[in-house]
Amino acid sequence: MIQKKVCMLGAFAVGKTSLVARFVHGFFSEKYHTTIGVKIDKKLLEVEGKRVGLVVWDLYGEDRFLRVEPFYLRGSAGYLLVADGTRPETLEVAQEMQERASAELGPVPFVLLLNKHDLPWRLEGARVEGLRALGWAVHYTSAKSGEGVEEAFLALARRLLS
Length: 162
Ligand code: GDP
Ligand code: MG
Known about the structure:
binds guanosine-5'-diphosphate, binds magnesium ion, about 160 residues, Rossmann fold, alpha/beta
């Protein structure tokens, strides 16, 4: 079986940990996770007839300093970049992180998740279209309702195999 490491990148509280919980374990919790560390989850997927083990790395707790440590990124086949559609400034953070990740990893596949789509939305459609025009794969998600979550992870998995 093919195993692929992917990591979660994005500003604090955009929903990275919640998206992993939704995707891997199928649940949503309102409570904050405050412990500091790296959590590694694994999910088996079948993509175009191939079995893939997606090994998802998530920094949890105090990731507000945007320290994207090389050890965290190292060996990643791709990553999920997350922004919060209720806080447009988190999209800028995501773009900065994308630059850092691509400097570290080279041009590996990634997908952008615009999360919290169940809440009042503040992100302009034009900004999203601008990113799509650059070739970015953009998914609207809600870790709370589950909207788009599976699709976004699968879209990354498909890109990892192609
Ligand atoms: P992280 O710091 O990026 O890992 O963010 P968390 O997963 O810890 O989520 C931060 C807060 O946003 C928590 O209170 C979550 O319950 C909440 N949250 C995460 N995703 C969603 C979502 O899609 N919708 C709503 N309404 N809340 C969310
Ligand atoms: Mg987290």
